[in-house]
Amino acid sequence: MIQHYLKVSIREQFKYKTQAIISIIGLAIGFTAFVLGGYWLWWETHFDNFHPNSDHLYCLTTTGLVKKATGADADLDQLHVNDLAEIKKLLPEIEKVCTFTDCFYTIKRNHSSQMLYGLICDHSFFDFFRADFITGTYKGTYPNGESVILTESTAKKFFGTTDCIGRTFELNGQTHPIVTGVIKNYPDNSDLIFQFLLINKVKPIPNVRRNKTYIRLMKGTNTNRVKEKLATYKSHADDPWGTEHIDRWKINLRTLPEVHLYCHPELENRIRNIYILALAGFMAFLSALMNLLVLFIGQQQRKQTKNRTYLCIGASPKDMLLKGWIELFLPMFIAYLLAFCLIEAIFPYYESYTAWNHYGIYEGISRRIDKAALFSNVIISLVASTVIFWLLTILPIRNILCNRNTNPVIFKRGLIVGQIFIGSLFFITSLILFQQLHFILTKDKGLNYENVIQVDMGYENAYEQDLRVLMPELQNHPYVTDVCYTATNSGIFTEQGDWYGSMNTHLSFDPTEPDHKRRDHLMIVSKEFFSFFEMTLKQGSWISESNPDDYIVNETGFKDLGYEDLLERSIYNSKGISNQKVAGIIKDYIYAPMQYPVQKTFFRLYTDQDVKEYMPVQYFYVRYLPEHKKEVLDHIVNVSQKLNVHGVSKESLCIKLTDLVDKFNRPEKVIFSVFSIIAILCILISTFGIYSLVTLSAQQRKKEIAIRKVNGATFLHILQLFFREYLILVIISNLFALPLGFILMQRWLETYANHISLTTGPFIAVLFITCIIVLLSIFRQVKEAAQANPAEAVKAE
Asked: Do 36 and 9 lie in a common domain?
């Protein structure tokens, strides 16, 4: 019997092959987008939840020390030692405290420098966090810096085996602890990044006197009450540098996953995109399921006579349900198989796109989604979605298959409204995404970065040598037209948008200014810098060797400072008024992705004093003649080889600035591509749903159409009759979709410092196009019905 039902179902798929193919492809792509986006969201929001008793572990973070590029406050996963002492008194609910701090060592290995990153901790670390020992133990060690625990990958990298207990782990000439244990690597979704654990007394970070601080609360503790206490707490930190607004500090209680979400400002836009992609996938999957249900109901209504025959010859309601479920779930099964193939095919790209690449002191460390865990979640999602779909549809399908006196017209029209709603919502979002992407790609950045290669000599090379000697050698090539340089941590573009410039300083233009703790970003550049990038001077004059101590400020800085006579003001220092001043104001240039606003930025020329004050040259910029990139790249690698003692790779050494800007725009390009594909797919799905419904309606209303024709109705009258009915569905759908699209896209655009303004044009276009699609969907079927012989139609009825 089941074999027979399968044959019947396969024949049905071939009979309506166009609708079946669109439905299956829609289900496959929708399920793929939903699962990949959903799992990525789950992965990002479940960092460090694998630790024992993780639901009782919290990190004490400080707000007021770090800002996002937008200017809003972000959390820092550090706590001042004075605050820890006071919070222990404030919160008797604390059961235990664990503090640790980062440590870094640069070692020479295989003729290149490598950064080793670890944690300095005591035994409390192992009481808080997971530590699966492969060999050895931390027990019996003393916190004196003479014992070290290695991760499995570190042990194999340096010793070739995990059986290395008792061997010396050379970190530098003064630090060479003995290996006492090897633990399994942490999963990638962890904010605890280390290659080794150095067992030692945990001392606060010098000068700032802060540590990473985790606490374990007693079981049964009311965490909301703890947060209320912390909300009223005033910091007791001492600030010897006088540069922080301690009165604005706030101490927060963060769960382990929240540390990842709140303490990494650079992840804000990433998390936003994940939510968008996960929601888009879910809606596409939902639209495909609704279309599948519409097609199934239409097919069953066409086969009412056949279904009655099954019941008359003894088929039970259970048999009819079984037959119906096979017909309904066969295309779902095929779609899921196709989705598995799609996920397998695109996984390398997905893994690359979702990887979390660190920057700053953890530059080069990448966290990636586990493939096995992803596929296990795919299977769970498949089973869960199938069961939920079955539960939601069991009643209307049972009524149809068992020939009960029910009319599914309202149900079918509701499904069509849902499909048009999703299609219109994707349509309007895709249009606005395209407008914003076009704006990003075409907006004037304020500088000329075409045919320019950035040469990053690396942090270690810069601090050990005066790299300015490289400039004339870089210039000595027939295809190189110009060269300039900037100081360390001062690339012309920054991917994150925050901490832009060589250093943070404070330039005072008024001895009585209210905010003497204001941070000013400073770029230290060569004298060729401004002409190299063809920047525009708005007021004043350029700085040159005749006034090397003066500054240039961008337009934003000029507006933020609020001094109309800024070019006439002198700069004050600790000794009083100086001979320094701002010589000119340049047009803003966009140095980061457009989510970030341009910040106040000062520029000054590089001097010999900067070398003495450990502000070395790190970045060179080489402009080359078009179509000669390869020759210039080879030249750069050759001339920099003798100064590249730390073995910076060619990929890190040279990057084309246009490639870097393209990298900034990658998230927008991916979102637009995904939304465009899903929008087209959802529109096709809703179109075929309408087409199927019109086909059924036209067949069921043949007699009505015939009578209308006999009474003088023209084709246009009959077309208008059908079109009016479905136009109402289109209007109802768009009445919900377009306002929702406006709200969502307005909020999305507000996450960009530079964005387009929403107009009514795209919304009117979506309404008009969806009406045209509906008209085209019903035109053919109504035409065939209207051209049929009325006598034949009446006779058939």
From this structure: yes
Amino acid 181 reads G
Residue 381, domain member (yes or no):
no
Report whether 272 contacts 44 (CB < 8 A): no
3-state secondary structure of 625: coil
Identify the bridge partners of residue 92 per DSSP, sorted by sequence position. Answer: none
Domain contains 383: no
Note the pLDDT tens digit of each residue in 380-435: 988 988 888 888 777 777 776 665 555 566 777 787 888 888 888 888 988 898 89
Nearest alpha carbon to residue 243 among 500, 504, 553? 504
Q: Write out the residue range of the structural domain in which residue 480 sits.
A: 458-647
Q: What is the tens place of the pLDDT at every residue in 90-128?
A: 999 999 999 999 998 877 766 666 788 999 999 999 999
Collect all residues with Cβ–Cβ distance below 8 Å to 657 and sequence separation of at least 6.
449, 450, 452, 453, 454, 492, 493, 621
What's the token pair of residue 594? 């457009």
pTM for the full model?
0.79
Torsion of CA 334, 340, 342, 348, to 10 degrees: 180
Asked whether the beta carbons of 154 and 195 are under 8 A apart, the reply is: yes
Among residues 351, 370, 389, which one ends one of the domains?
A: 370
Closest CA to 283 of 423, 430, 431: 423
Instruction: Determine contact, residues 295/692, Cβ cutoff 8 Å.
Output: yes
Is residue 161 domain-resident?
Answer: yes
**How buried is residue 194: exposed, middle or buried, by Cβ count under 10 Å (0-12/13-18/19+)?**
buried
Report the alpha-carbon distance of residue 647 to residue 133 in Å, rounded: 34
Q: Which helix (H) or strand (E) holds 337?
A: helix 317-354
Residues 642 and 589 in one domain: yes
DSSP tag of 303: T
How much is the pLDDT for 518?
Answer: 77
Cα-based distances in Å from 6 to 1, 407, 455, 458: 9, 27, 64, 64
CA dihedral 128→131→136→137, nearest 10 degrees, is 0
DSSP 537: E
Q: Do 271 and 324 share a structural domain?
A: yes
Q: Taking every pair of C-alpha atoms in the chain, what is the biggest distance, in angstroms?
A: 107
Q: Which residues pair with 603 in a beta bridge?
A: 523, 552
Q: Are 83 and 236 in contact (CB under 8 A)?
A: yes
Specify whether the CB–CB gap between 228 and 103 falls below 8 A.
no
In 3-state terms, what secondary structure has residue 454?
strand
Q: Among 110-119, 319-328, 552-561, whose mean pLDDT is lowest?
A: 319-328
Burial of 468 (0-12, 13-18, 19+ CB in 10 A): middle
